[in-house]
Amino acid sequence: MYGRRKRDRVLTALWGVGILFGGLASASRWSPARVTPVQRTITAVVTARELLSPDVVALTFADPDGGLLPSWTPGAHIDVRLPSGRRRQYSLCGPPGRRTDYRIAVRRIADGGGGSIEIHDTVDVGDTLAFEGPRNAFYLVTDEQDVLFVIGGIGVTPILPMIRLAHQHAINWRAVYAGRSRDYMPLLDEVVAVAPDRVTVWADDERGRIPTAADLLADAGPATAVYVCGPSGMLESVRAERDKHADAPLHYERFGPPPVVDGVPFELELARSQRVLRVPANRSALDVLLDHNPATAYSCRQGFCGTCKVTVLAGEVDRRGRAAEGEDEMLVCVSRANSGRVVIDA
Ligand code: FES
After folding, report:
1. How many domains does the chain have?
2. The domain that contains 232 carries what CATH number?
3. What is the best residue among 19, 298, 336 to mutate for testing ligand 1's pocket, by most ligand atoms within 8 Å of CB?
4. What pLDDT is attached to residue 39?
5. One GO molecular function term (predicted)?
6. How far is ligand 1, taken at its centre, from the CA of residue 20, in Å?
7. In this structure, are residues 89 and 77 in contact, taking their beta carbons and an 8 Å threshold?
8. pLDDT > 90 in the chain, percent
9. What is the DSSP letter of 318?
10. How far is the CA of 322 from the centre of ligand 1 (A)?
11. Do residues 180 and 96 share a domain?
């Protein structure tokens, strides 16, 4: 979900030794301020619920006894434990560092894993919410003085507190916020309110088309630090465009799983149920497992939270996760096999 493009090659190597959404992208030449991740489960009570757009609900929650919640920095996320047992990660989008309460915003995804629907349909004011964190792997580097924020839809959630922090630090920032229409651009009013002359709004229905990467990066010079958060298509196009400037810093947070790169088909044998599933070259093992069993545990789908980890009983694993993967473990959301069959304890 997170990354720094210029570190990708280094990180790819480092991820294999387990540096990582709980420490992800922690190898950085920018030495950002860090907040120690909170590992314990915290229970909070929902104090406000607001529909930000037709498909996005914001929840505010606080310590039930009025205490302070753990410290956090813009870009941080929490792992929410839903009553069903699902775990989902949401960025904190309230005022930077605010500890009297937290705010998250959740887009309803009709064909997702059910977590967003559960929140939309069942969580209300007065309910309790259990979470772990915050953790941050998408932090603002405050010594970067020329910054462009690129926002796509619900990708606004980590970016909004970053913008506020950048403004507090007198960073020369601009932002471009893209969405299909203003009605479907949650928190747009709050982004614009920080500094209206620094924000470009790209509503597709007003402009008559979706933006190209060049449109989104129109305000970025070769040395501008770009922070992008939004759909995979937007992220990939911005990354490709920024690759034309070899030294341009790029920070990103990805919603949804990354595309499978250099995948080959393999078989996944489920030892307990004695089933063999074929994993195609362009799908993850997790996707195939979810077809087989929709209750399969997962959260980030990007190899850093560890939720999908399974025990491997036989076979060679091509480990691609950033969370630690032991010799007999596999993060099925990203790791795969180069050929043949992997037998897992499932
Ligand atoms: S779902 Fe997070 S590591 Fe696989």
Report:
1. 3
2. 3.40.50.80
3. 298
4. 59
5. metal ion binding
6. 12
7. yes
8. 62
9. B
10. 9
11. no
